[in-house]
Specification:
The protein is mainly α. The chain has ten helices and two strands, in the order αααααααββααα. Strands 1-2 form a two-stranded antiparallel ribbon.
């Protein structure tokens, strides 16, 4: 009797583990639209068709399309996906390649602007001659400075040390303008 009860309990435990494994698999295997470049390309083309534009979309056209109930039904994206897409795109015109790169990027446009501005503000040091403060000198924004900032703020952006290393790899070792920083963080070239 005790052996049969023990065997049943072990089987129940194995079934429970199997169920949990399948539950985790089904919740993580089907990535949202933001992690799927093919579905993002379809979304881009649907926005183009809806807005009657030739080859590019804007933040306004993307937002207008995403807020339509039939778009949400067709692509099945969540409110979090919609927010990520809208926060990732910028106001100007975007090609399909830019749109997909922006949405699949680790950071949104607004996050990158905050990172760049925070680093720029931190690098502004007043010049001292004796006891006089003359003016603020902005030190160059380089790969090393961005890496140290992201290491310090990695919890805020949900990054690991490996993520920070991979993200900062394409950055330049000399002073980067906003445009260069943004282009390298999103498009990696």
């Amino acid at each position: 009797m005790f052996y049969a009860l023990k065997k049943k309990t072990i089987m129940d435990f194995k079934i429970c583990v199997l169920f949990l494994h399948l539950f985790v698999h089904f919740n993580t295997a089907n990535a949202g639209i933001c992690e799927n470049p093919w579905r993002l390309r379809d979304l881009f083309r649907a926005v183009l068709y809806d807005s009657s534009q030739s080859d590019s979309v804007t933040e306004a056209t993307v937002t207008k399309y995403i807020n339509k109930p039939e778009a949400r039904k067709r692509f099945g994206f969540s409110n979090e996906d919609a927010k990520k897409i809208i926060d990732s795109v910028y106001v100007g015109e975007m090609t399909e390649r830019e749109f997909v790169a922006l949405v699949t990027s680790k950071f949104t446009y607004r996050q990158l602007a905050k990172i760049y501005n925070d680093i720029d503000d931190e690098s502004a040091k007043p010049m001292k001659i004796g006891s006089l403060k003359l003016f603020a000198v902005h030190f160059p924004i380089t790969k090393k400075i961005v890496r140290s900032y992201l290491m310090r703020e990695k919890e805020q952006y949900n990054l690991s040390v490996t993520d920070v290393e991979n993200i900062t790899e394409p950055l330049e070792d000399y002073n980067m303008t906003w445009e260069a920083f943004y282009k390298l963080m999103i498009f990696k070239y």
